[in-house]
Amino acid sequence: MTSPWVWIDATELAAGRQLWGMSLVERQVREMALRACSRFRLLVTAETRAAVEVMRDDLDRLYEVELEIVEIAAANEVFEHLAQAGEDVVLLAGDSVYDDRVLAYILDAGAGAASWARERGAFYFSSAQCAALQKQQVQSWQELLAADALGFRGKEVGELNAYVASLRLTMPAYIYRLGADEDLRHIDHLMYRRTFKGAIDAVARYGYYHLVRWITRHLARGASTPNLYTLLSVFCVWLASPLIAVGHVGAGLSIAWAGVILDSVDGKLARLRLHLSDEMGAFEHIAAMPGLALWFVAMGWHLSVGQLSVLHPLSLVTWFLLAIFLLDKVASGLFKKVVGRELFDYRRIDALFHLVAARRNIALLLLSLGALLGYLEQSFYVLVLWMAATLFFHLLRFFWVLVSLRFFRASANS
């Protein structure tokens, strides 16, 4: 299937405003380029051209795009030009921030599809609909949104699926129109929130949420790539284990926290800068996955003075912790495979429990508090008990959900 020509109405001053390291127009170019669109026409005025033309240096390196900038005298000329397009065109408003679900929806639905909010929308014009603009005398976004005769099919933005499976996040899709002098704090927060996983632990939500946001905002303005911070994160995760094992517990735990924070930063930066890499994401998942298990083994090695291979209370506790941790990972993976949804946010009770469940951040917090207060060994035992409680809760929920689903299916078939 041939990708459509993408036109961006950049005649409003807000189109050139910078958010998370790039203009609104460049963000739309990148969003559509990620979806295999390569031809873009940017319609600007003399007042907006200078700001809209500014693009990040890595645009051409990351995407193969053909940008054509057309200067027009007034905003109403956008629709006059569009009427002469002669082919399928996606029309976006350069003064707006689009949730990626909006763009995915119209591209999947094809020519004639649209999604809209009160003042702006995303429209996938067929060539016939482009030609009909002149007959319908459409000369503004307001007239376009009211032009039922053009025959667009689609959904209001609030009707799109609010659940983002990749982030375990429930958040309504949006099209946010930005004013030329509008304070950026609200849309800044909205865009950042859209990159954060919905079902997260209390440490991520209430601990370093604002720190990661502050770091990401400053890095977004620079030229460094998210992949750099992915590599640094994996390095820190692995470096923590030998440091803990040889007795440098404070340094090891500090390095572990640095890895955790960088792991959060790289994902936010990649999504906000639209600098995504499936290969690096897969590498991070594989390379960082054993990190927590290695921290457990390293802590057990340190506390047992290297006696993990002999019959010793701390060695038994360490291997028990490792076993229940792995069982919990298996249970979570099986639940997703069988039910088709993450165990961590299947229902509100699961998301609430995930705030305190014995996952990476909570485990690291318990060990750090133990080290700071001089009760490291005791905190290790507490972690084992809480990991066992976490596994028990997840197994209980797994069983309950399966029984409930089978009951409802049986009731529906009877």
Defining traits:
alpha/beta, Spore Coat Polysaccharide Biosynthesis Protein SpsA, Chain A, Four Helix Bundle (Hemerythrin (Met), subunit A), seven-stranded mixed sheet
Summarize the main sheet: 7 strands, mixed
Helix fraction? 55-70%
CATH topology of the largest domain: Four Helix Bundle (Hemerythrin (Met), subunit A)
Give me the number of helical elements. Answer: 18
- Structure class: alpha/beta
Q: What Rg, in angstroms, do the CA atoms define?
A: 26 Å
Task: Please tell me the overall pLDDT.
Answer: 91
Low-confidence stretches: none
Percentage of β-strand residues:
5-15%
| Integer tally of domains | 2
Q: How far is the first residue's CA from the last residue's CA?
A: 44 Å
Task: Give the CATH architecture of the largest domain.
Answer: Up-down Bundle
